[in-house]
Design goal:
It contains eleven helices and 16 strands. The strands form four sheets. Strands 11-10-9-12-13-14 form a six-stranded parallel sheet. Strands 7-3-5-6-8 form a five-stranded antiparallel sheet. The chain has a three-stranded mixed sheet with strand order 4-16-15. Strand 13, helix 8 and strand 14 form a beta-alpha-beta unit. Helix content is 29%, strand content 27%. By secondary structure, the protein is of the alpha/beta class. Helix 3 crosses helix 4. The structure holds NADP nicotinamide-adenine-dinucleotide phosphate (NAP).
């Protein structure tokens, strides 16, 4: 197989492309041939040596997600056969043209999605769905505040929330991107204004925090009674000061979450819930993944840099 590798920790200098032996599926695994793979902020933290790789995952091949066609099945695999198109989560090793994945952690790609758009789905949409719907309990008529709404997870969250019938206020830093996020179904404001607007509407039932500490005091101030702040993104070392009396009086919750570190059973159950609740919206075109840019594999180091560059709309992919 052809894959991206990190030769130690550092900057672009540690990024290389190598040929390795093709993966052999374990008993409950499928091997997926990919054409495109998503690049995520966690890959860059891993390159810098600031994001530990879960045990069992390839330690030097980045990539948290997979989408493509099954080319091999382990002896206990019962749901898929060679030729099926699947997408889902992996603990690592996703930036490769062949990826081994747990059967339970992948789900079928709807025919309506081509390989390109399918590759933009798993990490962003499963993270967004888990945060706002599963953990936040977002329901029809609720109000959602999304901070950092123009990236992969943010654009997924806005679309999922619209599909479930929620009212969405989104904070987007780039003025040029605000009309584009507005088209997805949100009222879009600058980061300094969104929380105050939500407060004037009666407060947020769910706040999706994708940026981190700078927003937390305003998030709490804008939280509705019994609302939940879900912290999905924060910079290493982020610290916030909050009024615990305000948290108590709102009977609010602050929840921190990660996907990658969860045990396979939990990730598998989440992927199957995602298949039932959200994939039908992808199949009907009600929600659609946004791809900001696709890089050639030879330019993968630039793709990592691009993920950190402000002004993207949606996901960054690499052609594997
Ligand atoms: N916990 C988990 O399991 C999990 C899973 C997936 C992702 N994440 C995390 O969630 C975050 C979002 O992921 P993503 O894939 O959507 O990343 P992304 O595509 O790079 O999007 C990041 C978004 O945050 C905005 N942003 C960044 N810094 C900002 C700041 N200082 N003020 C205001 N807005 C800012 C960006 O706007 P600009 O374009 O203006 O920079 C962009 O809209 C990342 O921190 C990622 O590591 C966590």
């Amino acid at each position: 197989m052809r894959c991206v590798v990190f030769n130690g920790a550092g900057g672009s200098d540690v990024v290389a492309i190598e040929e390795r032996p093709d993966p052999v599926p374990g008993k409950h695994e499928v091997v997926v041939a990919t054409r495109f793979a998503g690049v995520n902020p966690a890959d860059i933290l891993q390159r810098e040596g600031r994001h530990p790789v879960p045990s069992g995952a390839p330690s030097d091949i980045p990539g948290l997600e997979v989408a493509g066609t099954v080319v091999g099945c382990g002896e206990a695999v019962s749901d898929y056969k060679v030729g099926d198109r699947v997408f889902g989560l992996v603990g690592g090793g996703g930036l490769s043209n062949f990826v081994a994945a747990q059967e339970r952690e992948v789900v079928r790609i709807p025919d309506a999605l081509d390989d390109w758009h399918a590759a933009a789905v798993p990490e962003a949409f499963i993270t967004a769905f888990d945060a706002i719907c599963v953990q936040g309990g977002l329901a029809s008529g609720d109000t959602l505040l999304v901070n950092g709404a123009s990236g992969g997870v943010g654009t997924a969250a806005v679309q999922i929330a619209r599909a479930v019938g929620a009212r969405i206020v989104a904070a987007v830093r780039s003025e040029a991107l605000r009309p584009k996020v507005e088209q997805l179904g949100a009222t879009v404001l600058a980061p300094g204004e969104a929380a105050a607007h939500v407060k004037s509407l009666g407060g947020a039932d769910v706040v999706l925090e994708l940026v981190g500490a700078p927003h937390m005091a305003a998030n709490l101030d804008a939280l509705a009674r019994r609302g939940t702040i879900i912290v999905v993104g924060a910079k290493p070392g982020d610290e916030a000061t909050l009024s615990l009396r305000d948290l108590m009086s709102r009977r609010g919750r602050i929840v921190g979450t990660t996907l990658r570190t969860r045990p396979p059973e939990e990730k598998g159950a989440l992927a199957q819930l995602f298949a039932r609740r959200i994939v039908p919206y992808l199949a009907s075109g009600t929600i659609a993944p946004l791809v900001d840019r696709v890089f050639d594999l030879a330019d993968v180091a630039d793709a990592f840099d691009h993920v950190r560059t402000p002004g993207k709309l949606g996901k960054v992919l690499v052609a594997t």
